[in-house]
Amino acid sequence: MRSLTNMRESFTAVLERARTLTGEFATEPYEAAWAAEARWFVRTLDRTDPGTRLRVTTQISPDGLNWCDLEPARELTGDLESWTSSEFGGWLRLKGTVESDSGAESPGANVMIYLALKS
Fold first, then answer.
1. CA-closest candidate to residue 91, choices 113, 56, 119, 65
2. Contact 99, 64 (CB under 8 A)
3. What number of other Cβ atoms are within 10 A of residue 102's Cβ?
4. 3 vs 61, which has greater pLDDT?
5. How far apart are CA 49 and CA 110, in angstroms?
6. CA 35 remoteness from chain centre
7. 22: left (phi over 0), alpha (psi -120 to 50) or beta
8. Per-residue pLDDT tens for 64-89?
9. What's the sign of the alpha-carbon dihedral 93, 112, 82, 11?
10. Most buried among 66, 91, 115, 119, using CB within 10 Å?
11. CA distance 119 to 105
């Protein structure tokens, strides 16, 4: 018989659902102190023009109010991108910017952002 104490917990939170991001943004904070592993998924559904770029940084917080960067910013160029974050403590969120290489006045990107957690 398998012990229930050896089972790992997992949960996937949808932090952004088909939201159009412009300029600077931050996702809602997510309490993840119970988790040992975190994996981000960002799916870009649409960009206002081909020169639109997303840059994101994983941020951590002890209380969900005050934030610092966990890792360097990364540029998201594909339709679906994923990466892991570790040693994050209590709270997680993504902060980022939407920019344009083509000089568009108000570049935007419609995205889905998921946070998958495992104990």
1. 65
2. no
3. 10
4. 61
5. 12
6. 16
7. beta
8. 999 999 999 999 999 999 999 999 98
9. positive
10. 115
11. 43
From CA 80, how far away is CA 43, in angstroms rounded? 4
Give the model's pLDDT for residue 5: 66
**Per-residue confidence band for 35, with pLDDT thresholds at 50, 70 and 90:** very high
Give the N- to C-terminal CA distance of the chain in Å, as an integer: 21
**Two structure tokens written together for 78:** 């594909």
Within 8 A by CB and 6+ apart from 3, the residues are none
Rounded Cα distance between 44 and 89, Å, is 28
111's CB contacts (< 8 A; 6+ apart) are: 16, 18, 19, 20, 21, 42, 43, 44, 45, 54
Domains, the chain, ordered by start: 10-118 (2.60.120.380)
35: which 2 tokens? 């988790």
- Interval 6-17: pLDDT, tens: 778 999 999 999
pTM reported for the whole predicted model = 0.89
